[in-house]
Amino acid sequence: MGVFSIFNRPPQPFRLSPTFSKLLLLFTVSGGGLVAYSESNSSNNDAIKSSQLDAKKKRVVVLGTGWAGTSFLKNIDGSIYDVRVVSPRNYFAFTPLLPSVTCGTVESRSIVEPIRNIIKKKSGDIKFWEAECVKIDAKNKKIHCHFNNEMHLEGNEDFLVEYDVLVIALGARSNTFNTPGVIEHCHFLKEIEDAQKIRRSIIDCFERASLPNLSEEERKKALHFVIVGGGPTGVEFSAELHDFIIEDLVNLYPMLQDLVKITVIQSGDHILNMFDGRISSFAEEKFKRDGIEVKTGFRVVSVSDKAITMKGKQNEGISSIEYGMVVWSTGIGTRPVIMDFMEQIGQKDRRALATDEWLRVHGCDNVYALGDCATIHQRKVMDDISEIFNVADKDKSGTLTVKEFQDVIDDICVRYPQVELYLKSKHMSSAVDLLNNSKLKDKEESEEIDIEGFKSALSHVDSQMKNLPATAQVAAQQGAYLARCFNHMKGCEDNPEGPLRFRQSGHHRFRPFLYKHFGQFAPLGGEQTAAELPGDWVSVGHSTQWLWYSVYASKQVSWRTRILVIGNWTRRFVFGRDSSRI
Ligand code: FAD
Ligand code: MG
Q1: N or C: where does the chain have the smaller number of CB atoms within 10 Å of the terminal CB?
Q2: pTM of the model
Q3: Which residue has the least CA distance to atom 28 on ligand 1?
Q4: Are residues 324 and 420 in the same domain?
């Protein structure tokens, strides 16, 4: 779907190669005692200094090794902080290629990077513990962790991690909306293991349908693939599955060709409804041509081991369809550990942790949240309008001149990004146009504006406030942003480079997080992709598929995975996908 912010690699500290160090040691030893003494003395001092520094270093605990956590890790200066990472996954997974893993277009190991490979390249001592955080104790600044001991080794698997600063990047889980039977009978597509299970299950359906003594009805049922959810993941998986079937499986199971069916159930009126309308229509038409049935306006009410029951929005009543395999992809929900934490800090009944624009969790000191588990609560301009006016009115005349307004507009735009978005949406070249457009200011250019005029001029800007989407793009940008802030924290609250504080005096220490959207892709199968690019550009077809290949290759987290992914694509073009059920 999306394009990603590039992970910036921080400058690596100068290190001596082992051979060079050995030569240096030899030279020092042979060169005489004095040199050797001064070397060891200074290294002792260094060790003392570094242990003193370590004692002073703040303990930053990062929860999660997904898009947000890994981007933070890649960018944090490990020599300033004592960084500890806790996650049940000791690898980073490139989730946008998960749908390709379900059909073997790309192998699962090609899209993961061990987290220790990433840590190894960093300066400082970053610790990783493969464990699940089961509770966040914000009052005592402790994390309760549990090691998933599948091998039942002896020993205690529970431990505590203390923190000075906590970075929560726990992501989200699949949302079932408490629909009965979903957990028991449906596949999800969120983790690597899910994609591997789906791959096996597709082949199981074909092998089952090939068994002797089955009626045609039973074969048809086994080969009915249902996808619940017409969002980017559901649509991309349907397209992948269709390609896998018509490009590879029909050659291996020719007698089953006419019995296969793919159905997408979508509760909204269109699939891909978060995309431009042209992309939704193109996708619907393409699916129609491919024989993929799209049932829009239907909500699944229950799933049994044999059938899916759904209800139409247009009074169609309740209907059921039999299936061989179901993939549930209807969006994301809150992880239990986050729900428990939200209850502790007075954020009960929310979908995600509320943070301010600096990613600080509301109601907690030194706790940051980013990625899918958090949402930024953008401050409204209208909540601070009197304070903004007072700061802007430097001469305290009770009115603003254009010059006075111009002096603060940059700070306003940084602090309240909705102002800039509003200007863009109204095609205004400068914020002064806002004042000139104000109904109360129908006088001369040089006239001043009072508080009422000011309120009226800015009254609609908050309409541009939107929650950021739960995407890898957002999570990765937030991780990099937070690490950069941490790297530049000087312990001083005021920084003239930060925007003006309107409610208090001085400046904010950092600019608030600002998301840059680089566009999003919707692969539709048959080497066709749709893309929404910045500047309201829509591009569809084969050429966009090549753009998709190049963007996804370039956004790989390491050269190793990049080469593996490109190798997998090439192998697929030459030999097709592998249908072994491993
Ligand atoms: P995640 O990446 O989910 O990471 C969460 C981390 O927390 C994981 O390491 C997990 O193991 C860890 N964790 C979980 N529970 C615990 C616990 N109790 N204790 C400690 N650690 C824990 N976005 C795009 O922008 N473009 C795309 O094309 C795209 N395609 C997608 C395709 C699929 C199939 C899926 C599922 C998602 C896709 N997304 C895409 C969305 C994107 O993957 C998410 O928005 C992104 O992963 C969010 O990053 P995150 O770091 O918040 O969470
Ligand atoms: Mg004035």
Answers
A1: C
A2: 0.88
A3: 1
A4: no
